[in-house]
Design goal:
Blueprint: E1 3-9, E2 12-18, H1 21-33, E3 37-41, E4 47-48, H2 50-60, H3 65-73
Antiparallel strand pairs: 1-2, 1-3, 3-4
Length: 76
């Protein structure tokens, strides 16, 4: 399933489409923390904010989403 993320801030818009819910969530959380307004759409057209998407993914996957997303967005 592909997930589409649209982030908007000021006069800028970013669009990303990925098959990994974890990557989309990590990107969404990083952008939201920088002041972007982020919406994620699943393959069925349902829209989520980053927090709602985290809950959605957590319900579908056994791996703890918060831990994975934090690891992906941690400074290197």
């Amino acid at each position: 399933m592909a997930y589409k993320m649209i982030a908007a801030r000021d006069n800028q818009t970013l669009t990303r489409e990925r098959s990994s819910a974890y990557i989309v969530l990590a990107n969404a959380r990083a952008l939201a923390s920088q002041g972007w307004q982020v919406k994620i759409t699943d393959g069925e057209g349902k829209q989520f904010g980053p927090a709602e998407f985290e809950d959605f993914v957590s319900a579908k996957h056994k791996t703890p989403v918060r831990a994975i997303a934090e690891a992906l967005t941690a400074p290197v």
